[in-house]
Predict the structure.
Amino acid sequence: MARFGFLSNDVGIDLGTANTLIWQKGKGIVLNEPSIVAFDRTTRHIIAIGREAQEMVGKTHREIKTIRPLKDGVIADFEIAEGMLRALIRKVSASWQPARRMVICVPSGITEVEKRAVRDSAEHAGAKEVHLIAEPMAAAIGVGLDVHEAMGNMIVDIGGGTTEIAVIALSGIVVDESIRIAGDELTNSIVNYFKRQHNILIGDRTAEVIKCNVGSAYPLPEELVIEVKGRDMMTGIPKSIEVSSDEIRQALDENIAIIVEAVLNLLEKTPPELSADIYDRGIVLTGGGALLKGLDERLRRETSLPVLVADDPLTAVARGTGKVLEDLAGYSSVLIKSKRY
């Protein structure tokens, strides 16, 4: 029985810049936490991870630092990322045994060095066997597309750190584009807009709330208004103003235009036979960015193609890693082959 418990302790991990999701064999998604760590500056001892650490962002004293150990979808702080991974796995693992097999999602534009960093972090966190899969491939599998067939599917996965665009057919990525403009950059553009236009300093968490509640990529049937509180840059005193969704759309427009441009560029590079499939099937949007109001409509108008937002786009990649983990033999052809040094 102990042996069975050990074997079933396999996990699929969507190691995201903004959130980390863990899928456990036989249980589905068991964890969805922000990829944030609070640690002691002197000892580098981890104090909190996930939601607990998120509550501390912007409110810590000088001895405590909060960081996201991943930047643009890849590991920026190796030691802290490893500690976070270990702590998150411990949260979901009932037994003391480490995860035996891990399937981890990585951006499609990842370098060999970055692959190695992810692999090493997972192994140091206790994994005996580590498999990597490209995010757009995992997203396609997660939304139920048959990636093995000779039909082209186009996926646009907008995460926190990267936007992954790929055309998939016959268990492989035919053409792809990975740009480091995604949810975080959209949040940043809101912070900068308030500095520029209103002389108000707002925090990333406030900007994230604004983006989720009134952010849009296309004019809304009824424009929304939100109250924003921040610090007046001239007087240094807290201040509150009301802004409309129309203003926030202007703040986001430059980065959204870059994402749309990347989609159009990839369509130009797509082989004609697969272009015909995409014309029939359309583009599938996944990731947190897919929830931005009007983004599907904007892409529809710019590409003249059908654009579908996946059901529960935030968990598509994690569900894909789970399906791969359930059938590693069947999906072995979609895994990233890594060079061994």
About this structure: Residues 1-7 have pLDDT under 50 and may be disordered.
